[in-house]
Amino acid sequence: MLVAAAALLSSAALADPPTRTVTEGPAGYTVACAVADQPGMRSCADLPSADACRHEPDLASRGSSEPTAMTFVNRSDTTLDLYWLDFGGGRRLYHHLTPGGRARQDTFTGHYWLLATPDGVCLGIFKAAPESLAFF
After folding, report:
1. Where do the H-state alpha helices sit in the chain?
2. In a domain, 135, yes or no
3. What is the DSSP string of 4-36?
4. Is it the case that residue 136 has pLDDT exceeding 70?
5. How many other C-beta atoms can be found within 10 angstroms of the C-beta atom of residue 3?
6. Is the dihedral of CA 43, 49, 53, 55 positive or negative?
7. Range of the structural domain that residue 117 is part of
8. Strands 122-127 and 91-97
9. pLDDT > 70: what percent of the chain?
10. What is the pLDDT of residues 21-63, one digit of tens each?
11. How many domains does the chain have?
12. The pLDDT of residue 101 is above 60
């Protein structure tokens, strides 16, 4: 089974900033960033997955029979919402990720998942791939 992970770093977790490289692409994600401004940490708003938020109206999950899975871990100090972008591009709420919360989501390649603040502001959109990894 292939797994993707997204973790949101809190200010406490930023005491020793991670040294992971930032890589985004169709085969997966390896990302470390801060939801709120943090010295020495790249802002999540600067990542390509955040830039995809501008294109949300044009993104819709496509039909697929290739299963995969994603795991999202919230290391921030705020609740975040995880949405599946359905076949029409609409948001379908799947999880409220409380601080420290984790959600494993079975999905299919080609499906889009959106991470948002409680007031609906998009933080990033990720396309499920056979080997997807995202660390926030």
Report:
1. 48-51
2. no
3. -EEEPBPTGGGGS------EEETTEEE---BSS
4. no
5. 14
6. positive
7. 5-127
8. unpaired
9. 68
10. 334 444 344 445 667 776 776 777 777 778 889 999 999 999 9
11. 1
12. yes
Query: Per residue in 4-26, pLDDT tens?
Result: 334 332 222 223 333 333 344 44
Residue 19: both structure tokens together: 């040294």
Does some domain include residue 78? Answer: yes
For the entire predicted model, the pTM comes to 0.70
Contacts of 98 (CB under 8 A, 6+ apart): 74, 79
Longest dimension (CA), the chain: 43
Contact 136, 7 (CB under 8 A): yes
Classify residue 74: in a domain, yes or no: yes
Number of Cβ within 10 Å of residue 108's Cβ equals 15
- Vertex 65, ends 103 and 85: CA angle to 5°? 50
pLDDT recorded at residue 109: 92
Neighbours of 124 (CB within 10 A): 26
How many Cβ atoms from other residues are within 10 Å of residue 83's Cβ?
20
Domain presence at residue 136: no
CATH at 23: 2.60.40.780
CA distance 122 to 104: 20
